[in-house]
Amino acid sequence: MQRLLPSALGVLSLGGMALLWRDLSSKVKGENRTFNSLLSQYLAVKVVGWLGKRQRRKLEGDTINVRQVQEETLLKRLRKNANTWYGKQYDFTSVKDSEAFRSKHPITTYEHYRELIQRIAVGEEQVIIAEKPLILAMTSGTSGSSAMLLSTKDTNTEFFLQGVAVCLEAMRLAFPATESLQRTTKLFYSPTFRQSEAGIPIGPNSSTPASSRHMLNLYTTPAPAFEVPSEKDTVYLHLLFALKDPTVGTLESNFASTVFYGFTALQDRWQELVEDIELGRISAALNLEPGVRARLEALMRPDPERAAQLHACFQDGFLGIAKRLWPQLNLVLAVDSGSNQIYGEMLREHYCEGVPFYSPFYAATEGLIGVNLWPLESPRRYLLCPRSMFCEFLSEASLDEEQPNTLLMNEVQEGSNYELVITNASGLFRYRLGDIVKVVGFHNQCPVVEFQYRRGQMLSVRGEKVSEVMFLGALKKAVDQWPAAQLVDYCCAESGILGDSSGGSDPHYQVFVELKGVRKLSEELRYKSPE
After folding, report:
1. Cβ-based neighbours of 487, under 8 Å, separated by 6 or more
2. pLDDT for residue 355 is more than 90
């Protein structure tokens, strides 16, 4: 019997290897992949797939009893930070539920935290949070001055487990072809960080090559390209190595705007890119450190056959170019809601015609807010994640009040607009996020929302309060009155900001637009005012 056991285990092991090999061999694979590279991607897909199923089940359970889950989330945050200077100031140890928390702690804005975060930046510990922040994260400043917030290990862990894993499971169900072993082209860059007085990195809190270093072998862009400081040169390298691989399966970026600008760069420099592929070189126009250039050029081989294929694709124009360059392209993975909506629309209508899009997250520097469980549906809507943040809601009618009453997740009404007030894992308590969302439904007991606008992005020269969504809708209707005109980008400013340069004394909007297709218009149509 003892002699039979090793033999049986050996047979089972061989059988398991055979099943793994059969499964691996059955999947669509990228070109020029080593077995180790394919195996690591296969195992990563399986592990993340298992994790995604687990996290999705957990999320479904959480949405059934939202009030309890939110209470647990809040108390977890307070208990962890109860012994900090801030926790003692607001007596977190005495808080037993959300009602007591809301009565003890005021609604806050960034000014409430500015000096506290500066204390952390110079090295003081246990100020707001119990742990040392990973980075001091700078917000984008799209609706006001940029703010410096804390980013912690808890924030990143929750984003991966409650966000990335869940959304990859939703993506797998909606787009089964993404389970292939094709490579992804991910357009992202290595940001420049500076150091605080205490040596804490200061910079953006978005996905970067450094934060994704264990996944870089899944991407078409080789690691040395991420050492290039110039974003312009990096996007060229992204495009170069993507074009070399005709089996790219996914185009990915944090935002649809980055994908759009990648395609505009492709349209400007396609001839140079094709020539590099034909000759097996890296363009001399790129300002590369000699060591980086040598490592990249070692990966290049003359490929006149692929160059000829690409040249033929580009000769047919740029409408639907993505699918011609990469016939097995399954998906564009990028946020295309909010301010990125216009870029998503332009990509779908032009460069990426016929390719499905998935906008996975609703997130900010403050952390994960919601996940999109309905990849195939539009407009984009997001299920709020009840274990990521403790959420409160300000009705749109009370936005101008300093300390308005708030509602909880189980108290909001479908069809109403609210500003989000959050308590997160990185030291923000009852913090006004500035995002206005519309509750469009519920998944079990949990609100499902659509992003509407940023509070600081309202236009108002006569008290009219025009959101970006309203303005963009009106602008698109105006542009539609010019035949063949296509809106590429826009900017709108109140005349008071521009001063004497606005060209008029009465309060008005100054609109700057970038259009395509207007050169073919007659003089009469070109200067016609939209009705």
Report:
1. 342, 346, 475, 476, 479, 513, 514, 515
2. yes
